[in-house]
Design brief:
heterodimer, A: mainly alpha, Cytochrome Bc1 Complex, Chain D, domain 2, B: Sulfite Oxidase, Chain A, domain 2, 5-stranded antiparallel sheet
């Protein structure tokens, strides 16, 4: 063992201590008042569904199951089959985006199918959000995709099938910020 | 007579910054205000003949200012809490919007949050998921900055084919300026430890719509704060009490109110609002996504519709200019519909991502005129014409309108929204 190496080894504990001090110096000035969260606590507050399907719960449903639910829970504001209600139109409008009167609906405009589940679960029905089961949200999602001609009436939407749905208008968006966070 | 010897800086009797410099302070004051003649001897007005009213724990505006309110207030059909109320810009001067007049835009009403129970959660692609109560957040080092907040639906009325009979609030009142105070979000995220693959932050509100927006992490680490204070007091319920995300210079919707959770992700959530609402449809059918910064813009707030001019003579022109890209460098004003322009005087405070008050003077001859302003920011970006903003936009495209506003003044002194 060379003399040089002995010196390095003897210095190692001190070197590690210095590394530790520099690594903790920033956080030492930071108040550190956050309470750690367990995985269960995180799951209990997380509403977010990503286009990858991350965040989608278990369960499932199809448009046949969703049709009756839609009439009871959604139709008063959004109209029969998503058209003609007092609030946002949800269906149709395909091929209108380049015309004189673009009609933006789930089918004609929305880029991701996962958004339908995400939004219904977090925000709908307007007067009583949080009252639908995950199966019901899947069924309503399937119904809205079906009346827009995106899926068949019997196709079940669930954790694996929903993220795989390709929306008709998906590739017509110009991203000012890329998915990786960089600006174009 | 001063108004006969001082030459205007631009057509139709417009006096800008050069006239102020040329005439000095006295001349400037003469341009901006008429002097009152002195009373022959001291008199007491009725309210000077006895002691006034008592003190009170909370201030309130004069009852004579009761007309200065947020309007119009418009809600989604079938709701009272999903809609917008607008700042009455035409009745305000200076920089700061009084908190009670700050515009509001809600998607499911104003939640009644118990601050003792509310928590902020940071989770997702982090080393240590953390939750913070309000008392803990208030112990963190804070920053406070005067900055504007603007809904990206502001000024969309200028896209209508015919100029609508609307006032400054109705067209541009989704803009307000406050001193926002709070904790830099970068500090909290550093404590949680962002994983290398973290690129976005998905922010959720504690309203019943759990309002959700995705924000690039780069912006968050640059200048985002968790705002607790607005104009020196805790946030008001309509602006996010007890805490909101505040993203300087970016479209207001992304500054999620009643902030409840921040999830670090490797991709945007593609939430309903960021995709189906706050995107910009072009005439070719393509739509621009994640157009966050609010572009350079200005508007003359006085004169403007509802503020009818009286007899011919000098009137002060003033307004606000702002840019999400930084400071305002220059504001030009025209009294002849954009044929000629003069530089406006900028008030003392020219701050980044904040509105700047600009001023000029106009000798209204009694003949019709068209008042306009156009701003340039420190990046060199200049406010576009309406025609330029309309180019390549699909019919019904709604957001991110920063076109120049034209106010027509007729022989009766009435001011109207006009297109040039």
């Amino acid at each position: 063992m060379s003399m040089f190496r002995v010196i390095v080894l003897r210095l190692q504990p001190l070197w590690c201590l210095l590394c530790f001090l520099s690594a903790t110096s920033a956080s030492a000035q930071s108040p550190q008042l956050g309470q750690p969260m367990t995985a269960a606590e995180v799951a209990a507050i997380d509403f977010t569904v990503l286009p990858s399907g991350n965040g989608l719960p278990e369960g499932g449903g199809n448009a046949q199951q969703g049709e009756g639910l839609y009439r009871v829970q959604c139709q008063a504001c959004h109209g029969e089959q998503g058209v003609g209600g007092i609030n946002d139109r949800l269906a149709g409008g395909h091929g209108t985006l380049t015309g004189p009167k673009p009609v933006k609906t789930i089918g004609s405009y929305w880029p991701q199918a996962t958004t339908v589940f995400d939004f219904i679960r977090r925000a709908m029905p307007y007067s009583a959000p949080g009252t639908l089961s995950n199966d019901e949200v899947y069924a309503l999602t399937a119904y809205l995709l079906h009346i827009n001609g995106v899926i068949e009436a019997s196709t079940v939407m669930n954790q694996s099938s929903l993220p795989a749905v390709v929306m008709p208008n998906r590739d017509r968006f110009i991203w000012a910020v890329q998915a990786n966070g960089d600006e174009y | 007579m001063a108004d006969n010897v001082i030459a205007p800086d631009a057509g139709n009797g417009l006096y800008g910054r050069r006239a102020f410099l040329r005439t000095g302070l006295t001349g400037s004051l003469a341009l901006l205000a008429a002097t009152a003649e002195g009373e022959p001897e001291a008199q007491r007005a009725p309210w000077m003949r006895g002691p006034g009213g008592p003190m009170s724990p909370l201030g309130a505006p004069s009852e004579h200012e009761a007309h200065v309110v947020r309007q119009p207030i418009a809600s989604q059909p079938g709701t009272t809490g999903s809609g917008a109320s607008r700042t009455p810009l035409q009745h305000l001067d200076g920089l700061v919007t009084p908190s009670r007049l700050h515009f509001e835009r809600h998607h499911s009403g104003i939640p009644d949050i118990d601050p003792a129970q509310h928590r902020l959660y940071i989770y997702g692609l982090v080393d240590r998921p953390l939750s913070f109560d309000l008392a803990s957040l208030a112990r963190y080092p804070m920053v406070s900055r005067l900055q504007f907040l603007e809904c990206s639906g502001n000024s969309a009325a200028l896209l209508a084919p015919q100029a609508a009979p609307l006032d400054c609030a109705a067209i541009h009142g989704l803009l307000s300026v406050s001193e926002w105070g709070g904790v830099p979000l970068s500090v909290l995220l550093e404590e949680a430890g962002v994983a290398p693959e973290g690129r976005w932050l998905v922010a959720d509100g504690a309203d019943s719509a759990v309002m959700s927006r995705s924000v690039p992490l780069e912006k968050i680490m640059d200048d985002a704060i968790v705002a607790l204070y607005q104009n020196g007091e805790r946030l008001r319920p309509g602006n996010g009490y007890p805490m909101r995300l505040f993203l300087p210079g970016w479209e207001g919707n992304a500054s999620v109110k009643w902030l409840r959770s921040l999830k670090v992700t490797d991709q945007p959530a593609m939430s309903k609002d960021e995709t189906s609402k706050y995107s910009d449809l072009q005439s070719d059918g393509q739509a621009r996504l994640f157009t966050f910064p609010m572009s350079v813009k200005s508007v003359i707030t006085s004169p403007s519709p509802g503020l009818t001019l009286g007899t011919p003579g000098f009137y002060q022109i003033n307004g606000l200019a702002w840019s999400g890209a930084g400071r305002i460098r220059r504001v030009e004003v025209s009294a002849d519909g954009g044929k000629s322009w003069a530089d406006a005087e900028l008030d003392t405070h020219v701050l980044p991502k904040c509105a700047t008050r600009f001023r000029a003077a106009w000798r209204y001859s009694g003949a019709p005129g068209v008042l306009m302003s156009r701003a340039t920011d420190e990046t060199g970006a200049q406010q576009p014409t309406r025609a330029s903003v309309l180019r390549n936009r699909a019919p019904g495209s709604f957001y991110h309108v920063n076109a120049m506003q034209a106010w027509g003044v007729d022989v009766q002194g009435e001011v109207r929204n006009v297109y040039v």
